[in-house]
Amino acid sequence: MKRRDFIELLGTCAVVCAAPGMTWADAGEKRGKILYFDLSTEWEHPPTVDEADGLSYAAKKIQAWAKPLGLDVVCSKDGSLFDGDLSQYAAFVFYTCGELDKAPEGKIGISEQGVKNLFAAIRGGTGLLGIHSATDTWQCQGELFENQPESERTEYIRMIGGDFITHGDQQETTLIPTQPVELPCLKKRAGAPIRHFEEWYCLKNLNPDMHVILVQETAGMNTDGHNACYKRPSYPSTWARMEGQGRVAYTSLGHGNEMWDKELVQDVITDLVAFVAGQIDLDLTPNLEKVCPGANVLMEK
Length: 301
Fold this sequence. Notes:
The protein is α/β, with parallel strands linked by helices and 301 residues long.
């Protein structure tokens, strides 16, 4: 079964500064640069659709949230950028979807060499943050509700850490911060459980070396009809890991424009941008089996 056939429809963080209350830029550090890339070759999410000024809603948010971190943001859907000098970027932020090297007419995909450059840059120390449909990018083949052996997963899925299966209706559920709490915005909330309304991705092919930051509780979720995909144990929604020298992070948050107006989404994405850009450190001890012991158990076919 093809995944698209299955779908019925488809803080500002604390950074190390010269004095309390100062931003990264205030401390006199050289401004860094990140590349926000939101090319979609399949389903295009509303926050990634370019508006009248040529920028998507999410692109403008990322620019605003990165500014206090002292980071300039290049926003693009042009895959040819990966044929150029990638050493200028501290990190990439991907809100992508589909096969990025197979762009349809009117879009510029990433070339074969550009793909190699992307992986080389990350393994050489450039960070990567994936948002929402970044796990619906360069996916694995095989049965929908079945984990593939690590050796059969795409290079990208092994790197980003998880693979999109499907999603049900948008609904509210609980996110549980793992302990000890590392992300500044979760410390601000005293590590308390968080209720959040979102389009929740069901994920598989989870990288065993990830450090889970937020666990998505499935107990109490609507599991009727096509929501049956949530009939499974709790699993990660936000995590971080290393790919060579590069810091990699992912959050499933951020489906619609209205989600990007929520404080939680701003805070989590801002903190993760700071992490992948090397401004804050997180404990990356693998904890998948400890905090989500049934995460690899999927809904019965």
